[in-house]
Amino acid sequence: MIQLSNGHSFEFMAASGALGFDGQGWPWEQPLRLVGLFKPELFTVVVKSLTLKPRKGNLLWYNPLRCVRLISDGVVNAVGLTNPGIDWWIKEMYPRVVVGELNVVASIAGESLQENMEMALKLKSCDKIKGLEINASCPNSPGELQSSNQAVIDTAQALKYVTKWPLIVKLSCVHDYVKIAKALEGTVEAISINSVPWTTMFEGKKSSLERFGGGAVSGKRAQAYTWKMVSELAQSTSIPVIGASVWEYQDIGKLFDMGAKAVAFGSIFLRYPWRPTHFVKRWLSIHRKTR
Ligand SMILES: Cc1cc2nc3c(=O)[nH]c(=O)nc-3n(C[C@H](O)[C@H](O)[C@H](O)COP(=O)(O)O)c2cc1C
């Protein structure tokens, strides 16, 4: 369980991108909701990352498979932060968050410290959000945070001064994540984990999303990288770590045993949208009384 300074606590999270911009899930998930197989209210939901200005990215809503490939044990994506921008989110999506009564965390992916500051300030009036995730690791987009550990540290430290939200920083295996975590103790309240750049996992091997830079790998296929991060971070920092890449029910227990304090469901929502709800219900029915 992760206890944030504003009193919100959570054990299960829906990772950014999994449940859309309002946390209620993508259209194709709604039929499952009607029959109880999909319940966003079981999760603290990180909404899809926002940029300061609208970003075209690579996603065409009428042809998502252009930049998202479902593979047997994961997902390769090169969405590239397609989103209509933070002003749109505050105007059109935040009211839905208020009505929906979900526990929602906003995710910002500014290209620089200044952009992230500007976005955090814009969110000031969004009282119902539970936290702010700094997406410092989008593998398919430009930005100094992806390539500079110091930029991540500086950004989180600066945001701490301008925002009241508990901060979560989202890192990837290409960062010096232990160094960042140590520098951000007392600044961020949790660390989440992003997908693995194709070029890191399959150096020299052609990706089916080559024309978008290769994309990034998530899900079971990414576990060797994301779970290494979980255990190394859990051993080296006091900041609670949110585990990633759950694929089977047993993965939840494995992540907690590795030292994760909460677990996020990401691409499993795309591959098997009913599984996270089923897994969480099962976990709570067994552990609610004992944990
Ligand atoms: C199609 C798709 C879109 C994603 N969009 C975002 C995003 O907007 N912001 C973000 O921080 N992470 C995004 N992610 C990364 C996930 O939130 C998650 O961190 C990553 O997939 C690793 O977790 P997993 O192995 O459990 O899927 C996206 C992942 C996928 C597959």
Task: Give an account of the 3D structure.
The chain has helices spanning 30-34, 86-100, 113-122, 144-147, 149-162, 177-183, 198-201, 223-236, 250-258, 268-271, 275-287; strands spanning 2-3, 9-10, 12-14, 44-46, 68-71, 74-77, 103-108, 131-135, 167-171, 190-193, 196-197, 216-218, 242-243, 262-265. Strand 5 and strand 6 form a beta hairpin. The protein starts with a strand and ends with a helix. The chain has one domain (2-56, 81-196, 219-287): Aldolase class I (TIM Barrel), CATH 3.20.20. The protein is globular. Strands 10-9-8-7-4-3-14-13 form an 8-stranded parallel sheet. Helix 5 (149-162) packs parallel to helix 6 (177-183) and helix 6 (177-183) runs parallel beside helix 8 (223-236). The protein has 291 residues and is of the alpha/beta class. The structure holds flavin mononucleotide.
